């Protein structure tokens, strides 16, 4: 990712003629992201090795040779010049080849944005059990990363399929079924990239409140950047990554268990944090801007303020 590198170790059981079930996951994250080592490639190997050591401790020795190992890079490496990104990937590949795990020639790659959205859609629908029942209802997903943000869902309305711009629809075959997904990644609209764009703006005009000033600037950054589709109003969506962190940070959801909120909660929280920023600075210097950005981003996607997100 653009702000960190993480290892996920998945253990599945697969009953005969059924979809697999996730029985255990190990997760560890390190900061910063690989792209931070663009000018010192050798240093990137240390973090990767540390994460591989976690895998060695977790996976039984007898399974090492049969356990596939892949690295998927996201927006942080997409935003780097091609040559620098390739050097980093080559270094990771060297570390992978020296490991005891199963590595192929394509074990290290930069995901395109569509694949990132599709992978997250698969994940959330796998975990909610939606993939087990053919023709059953699926859920949509919202992912807010550092460099990019993704939206993906399975359209049921013909108008969505007809009205989607080129590049927004993708076919996916999995568990003997084909899905036609609406999936798009907005490079540069991740939270960290958006902060840069918002702060890089022209001198702000006087406004009645800090929230109004922030909202006006965010609206400029988002203008004509996002495709809106009506159908999102009627699809159940799960939101994660920075959406989760920001909601938990201001008490909209439980930091450990998650929860549900309505889209309008982000706006209410933004107005409160912006209003109390000087008297209660503990929420951090970016909280007013981040919450305002997320609130307006969700509205640009077409979500009404009353829409429930899980």
UniProtKB/TrEMBL annotation:
Cofactor names: Mg(2+)
Broad class of enzyme this protein falls into: hydrolase
Keyword match Hydrolase: yes
GO annotation, cellular component aspect: Golgi apparatus
EC number: 3.6.1.6
Chain residues that bind ATP: 146-150
Active site: 116
Molecular functions (GO terms): ATP binding; nucleoside diphosphate phosphatase activity
UniProtKB keywords: ATP-binding, Hydrolase, Nucleotide-binding
Similarity comment text for this entry: Belongs to the GDA1/CD39 NTPase family.
PANTHER family named among the record's database cross-references: ADENOSINE/GUANOSINE DIPHOSPHATASE, ECTONUCLEOSIDE TRIPHOSPHATE DIPHOSPHOHYDROLASE 6
UniProt name for this protein: nucleoside diphosphate phosphatase
Species whose genome carries this gene: Pongo abelii (Sumatran orangutan)
């Amino acid at each position: 990712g653009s702000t960190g590198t993480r290892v996920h170790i998945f253990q599945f059981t697969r009953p005969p003629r059924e979809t697999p079930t996730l029985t255990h996951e190990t997760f560890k994250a390190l900061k910063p992201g690989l792209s931070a080592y663009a000018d010192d490639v050798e240093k990137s190997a240390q973090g990767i090795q540390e994460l591989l050591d976690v895998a060695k401790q977790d996976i039984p020795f007898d399974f090492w040779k049969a356990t596939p190992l892949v690295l998927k890079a996201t927006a942080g490496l997409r935003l780097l010049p091609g040559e620098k990104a390739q050097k980093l990937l080559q270094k990771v590949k060297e570390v992978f080849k020296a490991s005891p795990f199963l590595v192929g020639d394509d074990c290290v790659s930069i995901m395109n944005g569509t694949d990132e959205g599709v992978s997250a859609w698969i994940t959330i629908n796998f975990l909610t059990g939606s993939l087990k029942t053919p023709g059953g209802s699926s859920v949509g997903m919202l992912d807010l990363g550092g460099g990019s943000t993704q939206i993906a869902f399975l359209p049921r309305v013909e108008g969505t399929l007809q009205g989607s711009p080129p590049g927004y629809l993708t076919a996916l075959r999995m568990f003997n079924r084909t899905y036609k997904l609406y999936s798009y990644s907005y490079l540069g609209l991740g939270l960290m990239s958006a902060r840069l764009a918002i702060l890089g703006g022209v001198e702000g005009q006087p406004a009645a409140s800090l929230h109004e000033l922030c909202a006006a600037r965010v609206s400029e950054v988002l203008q004509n950047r996002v495709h809106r589709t009506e159908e999102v109003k009627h699809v159940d969506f799960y939101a994660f990554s920075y959406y989760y962190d920001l909601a938990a940070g201001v008490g909209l959801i439980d930091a450990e268990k998650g929860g549900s909120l309505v889209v309008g909660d982000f706006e209410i929280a933004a107005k409160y944090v912006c209003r109390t920023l000087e008297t209660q600075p503990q929420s951090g210097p970016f909280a007013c801007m981040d919450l305002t950005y997320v609130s307006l981003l969700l509205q640009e996607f077409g979500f009404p303020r009353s829409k429930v997100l899980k």
